[in-house]
Every structure is written in structure tokens, then in C-alpha cells.
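User: Can you model how calcium ion sits in this protein?
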Amino acid sequence: VKDNYQKRYAVYDGLMRERMMDEQMILREMEFAIEQKQFSIYLQPIYSVVKKCDTSAEALVRWVHPKEGMISPARFIPLFERNGFIVRLDHYVWEEVCRLLAEERDKLGRVVPVSVNVSRLDFYDENLLEFFMGLMKKYDLEPWMIKLEVTESAYTDNPQQIMTMMRRFQDAGFKFLMDDFGSGYSSLSMLRNLPVNILKIDMKFVQEIVTSFRAAKIMEHMVQLAHDIHMEVVIEGVETKEQVEFLQEIGCDEIQGYYFSKPMPKDEYIERLAGSPVV
Ligand code: C2E
Ligand code: CA
Ligand code: CA
Ligand code: CA
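Assistant: Here's the modeled complex, given as C-alpha cells:
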């Protein structure tokens, strides 16, 4: 018995150590990595059901590590949200997105809007709007070209302050998406007050629509509700034809997921845009 326990403990210990090393590596190298431009943006196109083509994309950060290869955001975003480094990374990502939009404008003569993720911590910066306006000026862009994705849980932090800030953004012409809608608490009551334009329903719903009658019905009614209060709906995490057909039937506006395309590097994304119809 004792032997077995020791063996099991050794495995556990090994895993723990690996995880800690991993965390330490990430924390040790993050500053250097941002300076060395090891972070890059990937773009995942978003398909419009009405227009039957891609009408926007989401920017998702990747860490291309010289030794470790591609590190998924699941491994570093939660750490950066704990130590605050996410604020620096987000600023970097937003600027990279603006560079991309300027490149589209110069190469293709048109711009397809991109949504960026905005972390809860980003709202502590009183000059957040000024930062975005600075980017608009520097790259000669307009606010409709960038949409801001904020997860519903972020609003619970400091709703009054965030709401005031969001209104200022909206007055300037930016749009907000509520990300991962339905994954947390008090989702419905938040819809009453928050100046959000687009609802992005959490992928757990779409992944259950085939197996769960309830998930399907809830999805259907969420889309209806959003439309009733003049919001658009994006469904993410869509992987199968059955899901797409269901979503078209219930009238959702935009679809994002592996079924249409995975997140791709910037150059590939621009090439894809170049070969797609103008809408
Ligand atoms: P998210 O904002 O909910 O992004 C959607 C995630 O779902 C992405 O994971 C995307 O690659 C993945 N996804 C897209 N389509 C499908 C699909 O059909 N099936 C499945 N199973 N997954 C799909 P990713 O890129 O690993 O990002 C994970 C999370 O990391 C994001 O979740 C977001 O919360 C965070 N994140 C990524 N980039 C940034 C960033 O620049 N700033 C901040 N603050 N957070 C970021
Ligand atoms: Ca997002
Ligand atoms: Ca999401
Ligand atoms: Ca998420």
C-alpha cells in the first residue's frame, strides 16, 4: 500500500512541478517575449448568415515561443490576469490589430472590422478611450473598425465605472460585444443597463443543442430576446453542419467557429480577404 501511495505521490509531484515550472517560465519570460515580438495575433473570420460571407473577425493572441513553440492563451492569459501583465499585452494586441487594419486599407482599399478582447483590468485605466483614439489617429482608422469584446463577468467588478466608460466609447463610435454570454451569473439583469450592441453566446450552448432539448430552446429564446431589445447575436464555437443549420433556422446573425475557419495568421487572413467578395 505504502509503495503504491509513494508512486502515486511521485506522479502527482511531477505534474505539480511541471506546472510550476511552466508558470515560472511564463512569468520570467513575458517581458522579454513582448519586447522580442513573440506574441502575435491570429484572426478568426466571422460569417454573416444574412450576407452569406465573412463580415468581421476576432483577434486572438498567440505566443510563438522560440523553444516551446506555440503556447495557447489558456496557459498564459489567466496568469497575466492575476499579475496585471494582461493590460500591457492587450495594449500590444490592439496596436497590432490597428496595424493590420491599416494594411488592409492600403492593400485592399477596404477594411473589415475586427473585434478585440478587453480584459476586466483594462477598465481600471481612466485613459482607455484616449488610448484607442490615439491608435485611430496614428493609423488613420475609424472607431467602427474595432469592436470591443468584454466578458459578462468583467461587468460585475465595478459596474458603475465600467458603464460610464462604455458610454463614452459608444459616443465616440465604438461598439461592444458581450462575450461568453450565459456562462456566468446575472446575465439577464445586466442586459437591462449595459450599453452592449452585440451578444456573443457562450459556446457551451451551441455544443449542446444536438444532445439537449433545453440547450436548444434556451438558445432559440436568447436569440429572440436579443433581437427584441435590438441587439445582434453572434454564436461562437460552431463546428458542425447541423449546428449551422439550426442557427440559421433560429435567425442568429453571425457565426464563428471551426466549421467556417480556425484562427489564422495575419498574412493568411489578408490573403483570404483579398480573394473574398466585397460587401
Ligand atoms: P474567447 O474570447 O472566448 O475566444 C474564443 C476561443 O474559442 C478561442 O480560443 C478560439 O480559438 C476558440 N474557438 C473558436 N472557434 C472554436 C470552435 O469551433 N470550437 C472550439 N472548441 N473552440 C473554438 P483561444 O484563441 O485559445 O483563446 C482563449 C481565450 O483567451 C479567449 O476566449 C479569450 O478569453 C482569451 N484571449 C485570447 N486572446 C486574448 C487577448 O488578446 N486579450 C485578452 N484579454 N484575452 C484573450
Ligand atoms: Ca472573445
Ligand atoms: Ca467567447
Ligand atoms: Ca471564453
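A couple of observations from the model: Residues 179-180, 200, 236 surround calcium ion (ligand 3) (CB under 6 Å). The chain is about 50% helix and 20% strand.
User: Helpful, thanks.
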